[in-house]
Amino acid sequence: MNDPVTRAHASWKANRVEKGEIPTMRKESTLYLKLRQKQDVFCTRGAAQISCAFVRQLPRLPGRPPLGLVRIGAQALFCALGRNGVGVKRHEGDSITPIGRFRITRWMRRPDRWTSFRADCRAISKADGWCDDPRSFGYNRAVRLPVPFSAETLWRDDGLYDILGVINFNQRPRVIGRGSAIFMHIAQDGYRPTAGCIALAAEDFRKIQFRLGSAPQIVVGDIFIRRSPKIAEPTRTFVAPI
Prior knowledge:
With 242 residues, the protein is α/β, with parallel strands linked by helices. The chain has helices at 4-18, 25-37, 202-208, and strands spanning 50-57, 67-72, 75-80, 86-87, 97-98, 100-109, 121-123, 128-131, 142-144, 151-153, 163-167, 183-186, 198-200, 212-220.
């Protein structure tokens, strides 16, 4: 503080703080906490967008439901999988999380419960549903309730669909009866198994929803592991002539 320029600057700043023109550290902290608590956040800037998430099944313990791991950038989060784990999904109701490479084509959220959301997240109404009836031409499509066929209600009271991302499994092309309503949504307590969806804890969903870019890819299963080719064994011995 022996420098006259430094003393002048400190005096000027103290005068501004007394007048309220410059907030103190305590006021800055309070303002920061209020901004953090404010839930009406539509987008974030400056954070690196992740275009791909990797989902793989962890080794299954005897008597335990399948558990998965979602890797998004440098973050690795637990997730719930279908009751029969990750595999090739063949028909409706087999409780298998489909293996493959997909995209999240749309985001939806319950507006009265999930107030921190992406800019491309659409609000769910009580009339929103998703058809899971193979007898309907609207199979594996969003529908408006009520409908004369079986459809899943997206407005749920258990909180599983407070926010969800629609995974484009069996959409283009669409095979009737192969499987429908594969979402990324909120997990139940203890990561109880799903009917084939990928489910994360609510606090983890709040962390990663803004990290994922527009229409992010979802790679489910170790589909890129290449096994070394097996060397063919000789069927007979050939002896070169002398």
